[in-house]
RNA sequence: GGGGGCAUGGCGGAAUCGGUAGACGCAGCGGACUUAAAAUCCGCAGGCCCAUAAGGGCUGUAAGGGUUCAAGUCCCUUUGCCCCCA
């Protein structure tokens, strides 16, 4: 308890006080769950330690904290940890720009962010903190890599990769945006051929796709996004031989084998190995020039749909597998080497992209499907992609297109020129990064033995300290001879370490497993601990991780389950994707410059402080460039963490975007002050929460005075509504509204009998505890409540307390509401009908007519239909 | 282009299985307290219309249509916005 000025609410005084006490007493240390005890794993996506907490973090962690606190009150053993996604480029960029050591920079950021997190009053067990850049963590990331390597799921291959010329590193496809720019540096990404490490996620594609259906606790749209990303399509692989009956040829994948007879050309990726042998001498120059140009542009650029499809004929041709006619071969920008077989068959009549390509290059269009089976009189003016009946297709004419695919595939199969095939959009996961500040890949390259794993007992392969990091020139580790030079663990000869580090998504794809057993030095986690806590009951984070982080985590969880290292195959049972925190933004429409809100004098008529021009206003995600960021520290300093928490929860439902509004923050602060005064008045009148409390549940509601009964009803309505709001869909906004209603209903609290007062106040403080943990704890102690408010039991609902002698009944006439009458709360249908018919409202609106039909909804309404 | 979602007062948002639309809050207005202001407390409040008033009527959930005793909620069409994939 804090002494100063007891009648006023001073959050700054009480919050630090209670944070200190909770920590000292270990209130939030995860209890070892007893046998049979219900466990609950509440997890927030751990942050990158950038050094400053922003409002998006606050929203994320407050949501998870409310859930964790509520589960504790409901008697569960709760795991609610926090950690740091601590490898990554910003630390390295800081090293380049300011010469600081990435490790020092990261540690300092973690310290300051940890302090900021503490000031929010989160019920986190800090003893379980996990930091991915610490050797005692990344030792196990390396071990995980070696497990994958041992099963052939980590492998090296030469690949055309996305090269970021600014950050001097390779990027995964997912890290390149639609405009072909790096997600981090914003640079135009180039394509290069490099030998890189990959993880075989495609081997798990079917399982990852099929099990999405079972993730009923995930938002539909996240599951859809993952399904699209995996992109399974069924079709056929078809071989176009160079000549018959020759063996060799070009294989294509198509989802439309039914259009095979419409093929008028073939297109290869410029990088396809067959390009040289199919290029005629007179086309050699044009082909070479085109390939050189393609090497400079990214995959996204090449396939962008709004630009013309460019290509060059090679001069050579292949043979159609069924018609045996010659098919000319082209190369074009829109075919990518790593996609399918790197070659597609061109069917301009039935594919929009092929039609566009054929039109601009004068290639013939051959219609083989028509809606009614009749041949078309005129050449089509666009591709027909719908179903129909085959024409011009040799023996397949008249067959429905849906049935034709398997028939044609079977014919090809018989000829040894094709087979059914399932194709995925998902690629294997490229994890090599030519950077310093990441987890070293524990591999040694030996002239004789090849890629040799570092023996498990030699892990971790420590990241060397004191390394000079330059802006350009690839991996800093590669030039570190004393580090890279080692003996081969197999043959003992001089060998060289792998100098690439891992994609940080690798580190963040298993951290939730480490939390269950964070200090284990013998293994990544014990099976006992991991199986006791996994899967995560509630995962909370931003929707920006809907694809990558969540898919990678699912993949590694499945892999470890296959290794019998854990029992669950899916890591996250329920997922909540919280909306962005937005703030008001001002922009001068003429200059397109953003104006800081502080510089705008009159928000009702916002004008440019320099020119006086009127400004556009809208809500956008907080960011430095838009000058609209709100610093959580300043909000906490001014109003306290409890107000910030309440505001964020109340202002919008958790999955929707939230518009920051200072006036609403103020309003929330006022509510907490009002609550404080309310409880203070109760205390001043001698109210306490210690000692034996009378059990009101046994006393029938009708024996209480009307006021006692009203207050009890408000108490139990609050229990019912708030429990419901926190049960299935997390509706924190309406839960806070119910707390306000409850408080408003206690205006005459002091006139109620002591037992009713005590029940109301204790209930109010316990229901409030997950939302405003400091305020509720302080008031609980002022009233001499036993122990901590956070160690109480969630109040249980007394149905009888909700009962009312009379309730309003809506009278409708012909479905239109005409008013209400008071009826006994327990009246049956017949009584309700006769009361409704006898009412003044019925008399007025029916004017003596007898209703033809009467609909009675007990407890709600009676509808009279004349 | 394909897939998914959303649209409710001046604003953020409520509304269980179709059953009094606008809970709760912000902003606003009126009153009390005060020398005054702030703070606090009490009250009003979707729109339009009638009435001196008490009160009453009509209308209203992007637009249009449908199902139903009853539609913000279900179905169809249109428009606008957002997200994902191309």
From TrEMBL:
Q: Which domain of life is it from?
A: Bacteria
Q: Which Pfam families match?
A: Anticodon_1, tRNA-synt_1, tRNA-synt_1_2, tRNA-synt_1g
EC nos: 6.1.1.4
Has the keyword Protein biosynthesis been applied to this entry? yes
Q: Which reaction does it catalyse?
A: tRNA(Leu) + L-leucine + ATP = L-leucyl-tRNA(Leu) + AMP + diphosphate
According to the UniProt record, one GO cellular component term is:
cytosol
Concerning PROSITE patterns, the annotation shows: AA_TRNA_LIGASE_I
InterPro entries, per database record: aa-tRNA-synth_I_CS, aa-tRNA-synth_Ia, Leu-tRNA-ligase, Leu_tRNA-synth_edit, M/V/L/I-tRNA-synth_anticd-bd, Methionyl/Leucyl_tRNA_Synth, Rossmann-like_a/b/a_fold, tRNAsynth_Ia_anticodon-bd
Chain location of the short sequence motif 'KMSKS' region per the record: 621-625
- Chain span(s) of sequence motif 'HIGH' region: 47-57
Q: Where is the Leucyl-tRNA synthetase editing domain?
A: 228-409
For the Aminoacyl-tRNA synthetase class Ia domain, which residue ranges apply? 426-582, 620-661
Q: What is its main location?
A: cytoplasm
On whether Nucleotide-binding is a keyword of this UniProt record, the answer is yes
Single GO molecular function: aminoacyl-tRNA deacylase activity
Q: Which UniProt keywords apply?
A: Aminoacyl-tRNA synthetase, ATP-binding, Cytoplasm, Ligase, Nucleotide-binding, Protein biosynthesis
| GO biological process assignments | leucyl-tRNA aminoacylation
Q: Where is the Methionyl/Valyl/Leucyl/Isoleucyl-tRNA synthetase anticodon-binding domain?
A: 708-828
Quote the subcellular location field of this record.
Cytoplasm
Q: Where is the Methionyl/Leucyl tRNA synthetase domain?
A: 45-178
Which HAMAP family does the record associate with it? Leu_tRNA_synth_B
Annotated family: Belongs to the class-I aminoacyl-tRNA synthetase family.
**Name of the featured protein:** Leucine--tRNA ligase
Q: Which gene encodes it?
A: leuS
